Amino acid sequence: MSTQAIDEVLRTTRSVRRRLNFERPIPPELIEECIEIATQAPTGLHRESWRFLVITDPEQKAGVARLYRRGFEAYAGRREGAPSRAQQALVSRLHEMPALILVCSEGRPDPGNNAMNVSFYASVLPAAWSLMLALRARGVGATWTTVLLVHERETAELLGIPEDVTQTVLLPVAFTRDAVLKPAARRGPREVTFWNRWGERRADAPASSGAGDQEPAP
Ligand SMILES: Cc1cc2nc3c(=O)[nH]c(=O)nc-3n(C[C@H](O)[C@H](O)[C@H](O)COP(=O)(O)O)c2cc1C
Predict the structure, then answer these.
(1) Which end of the chain has fewer CB within 10 Å, C or N?
(2) pTM of the model
(3) Centroid of ligand 1 to alpha carbon of 143 (angstroms)
(4) Would the CB of 147 count as within 6 Å of ligand 1?
(5) Does the beta carbon of 14 lie inside 6 Å of ligand 1?
(6) To test ligand 1's pocket by mutation, which of 73, 94, 146, 151 has the most ligand atoms within 8 angstroms of CB?
(7) Which residues make up the CATH 3.40.109.10 domain(s) of the chain?
(8) What is the CATH number of domain 3-179?
(9) What distance in Å separates the CA atoms of residue 149 and residue 71, rounded to the nearest whole number?
(10) Mean pLDDT over the full length of the chain
């Protein structure tokens, strides 16, 4: 196992919304291979509650893109500052993506019960992330998106999703076109990690600069 190759994939699986190849279809076998890898993720009570809806039909993609745009505009109207150019690039070309993968879960969460709620989503989202990693390793870019959930009911009607199935993340996917994917600038581990008691830093660690412990990403 090459630690270096694995770390590279883990460090550089970015949201890819530009420099995508809209013309190059993604072979269904490649998507299934990535789903096979993704479903090695942990699954609560061995239920394998994940379901993957792969949307390649142009009309269905256009329908999803319309709903996504409505959700995106509602989200953009609520937040301060304009959406990024990358976010806008994605919303304007979503219907052109070779495939949209909607990761779903059989069943419904229990919002009143945190343990059940966490278990519900934690049984599906690690697989969605593994799917992004497996796609990345094959030159396919994706973005983790949730604004479509604003219109979960309409999406369900459009795609024939039963009422007892919960939608989670939508991954628009396409082969990347000379995209250079780099590690993101994130807070360093010492800034986000406590040891033994909430708020306590590792005693034998040198004092942090406060701006993160790692070199910022280029
Ligand atoms: C819970 C969640 C929801 C997100 N929803 C959207 C979305 O609806 N549309 C979008 O363009 N990006 C979405 N993103 C992607 C984030 O904007 C992105 O992860 C962030 O900008 C950091 O960039 P990176 O993924 O390249 O590190 C979402 C990410 C998360 C974790």
Answers:
(1) N
(2) 0.94
(3) 7
(4) yes
(5) yes
(6) 146
(7) 3-179
(8) 3.40.109.10
(9) 8
(10) 93
